[in-house]
Amino acid sequence: MSKAIDLNNLPYADGDFYSFEHLLSDAERARLQEVRDFLTKEVRPIAVDCWNRADFPMEIIPKLAELDVVSPVRRQGYSNVFAGMVHAEFTRADASIATFMGVHDGLFTGSVEELASEEQKAAWLPDIYSLKKIGAFGLTEPLGGSDVAGGTRTTAQRDGDNWILNGAKRWIGNATFSDWVLIFARDVADNQVKGFLLDTRTEGYAATKIENKISLRTVQNADITLTNVVVPDEFKLAGANSFRDTNKVLKVTRLGVAWQAVGQQLAAFDVARRYAVERQQFGRPLASFQLVQDQLVQILGNAVSSMGMMVRLAQLEDEGVAKDEQSTLAKAFTTARMRESVALGRSILGGNGIVTDYEMAKIFADAEAIYSYEGTHEVNTLVTGRAITGISAIV
């Protein structure tokens, strides 16, 4: 008879095997625990049901507003290390809610903070920070993904004090219910990609939910069509005048996705370890078998190595010296490790790993979206390859 194991008091319960959290200030650690407590109470208990129904829990938005986690670095003065760990913890609880926050806080809010004029920021950011206005980020197109930098087909044409937008966007998170959406369109006059803040009630705008997803099902991705949409010139982002400007935002949000890969691995570790300790096979815990321990250690090792890379990169970001190729390597590396980790976790659960009742099936499926968005693994790898060779292999 094996001795009883206290499932609520497992060693290294938080999975922080190398004590990375000790790099945070006391105030940041306390705030991180506050976020964890919120996610444990409000997000994780509903995550599987929302995922199964492909339904976004709108009631969570006022609670997120009360938690006040939008723009922790620029607005609240926290470190990028702290901000990254918060995003990882959101993903650890549920990748879909983390993606909602990544779209609103990272892509949308980050674009306004980086590219809007001071007057525009003063007018728009208060409602954005308080989640009174939900935002979406319209860059990817039906025929443009990795090549969207040079292949944006959505057009913008100046007409007096207005701009006329025409085209289509795809995979736009939050867009079925967002109040605002940032649309990036190619100016027909100078062929440069520019950014526009669009009220989703504007005539000619339509958003249709993308159905039948197998990943991030809770996230409300949409196909957007723009038919002669009129946008006043004051809603053109003052600093968004080329794709180079847009890429300033993507460099930072790419870090957010890499942090998601960390959180997804920690989620896999949490579920797989608890299952392995609790599940009995041949009269003893599944965790007592050598091969199972090897798999758990591999998941943990992948998570720790990914966390270490992200902590250092966040420190470089805090110092203002992080480079785009460092972000692309991080996104490629951490998501590859994530893919391996969630597969090992699914394997540990056996048949129970393919039903969402045990969480792991959701974790496994959600990893596929994280692996692909904010630049595919292949493109991020080639950007890094170009940086270390001086030779482009992309085209």
Question: How would you characterize this protein structure?
Answer:
The model has no long low-confidence stretch (mean pLDDT 95). The protein is globular and about 75 Å long. By secondary structure, it is an alpha+beta fold. The chain starts with 25 loop residues before the first helix and ends in a 6-residue tail after the last helix. It has helices at residues 26-53, 60-67, 80-93, 95-115, 118-129, 148-151, 243-278, 290-319, 324-348, 360-372, 377-389, and strands at 135-138, 155-159, 162-172, 180-187, 193-199, 205-209, 222-232, 280-281, 284-285. It is built from 11 helices and 9 strands.
Major β-sheet annotation: 7 strands, mixed
| Count of strand segments | 9
Distance between the termini: 62 Å
Can you tell me the overall shape?
globular
* Computed Rg: 21 Å
The assigned structural class equals: alpha+beta
- The count of helical stretches stands at 11
Helix content: 40-55%
Regions with little confidence, pLDDT below 50 for 5+ residues? none
Strand content: 5-15%
Mean pLDDT, as a whole number? 95
Order of helix and strand elements from N to C terminus = HHHHHEHEEEEEEHEEHHHH
Which keywords apply here?
alpha+beta, 52% helix
Helices and strands in order:
Elements lengths: L25 H28 L6 H8 L12 H14 L1 H21 L2 H12 L5 E4 L9 H4 L3 E5 L2 E11 L7 E8 L5 E7 L5 E5 L12 E11 L10 H36 L1 E2 L2 E2 L4 H30 L4 H25 L11 H13 L4 H13 L6
Parallel strand pairs: 1-4, 2-4
Antiparallel strand pairs: 2-3, 3-7, 4-5, 6-7, 8-9
Helix pairs in contact: 1-3, 3-4, 3-7, 4-5, 4-7, 7-8, 7-9, 7-10, 8-9, 9-10, 9-11
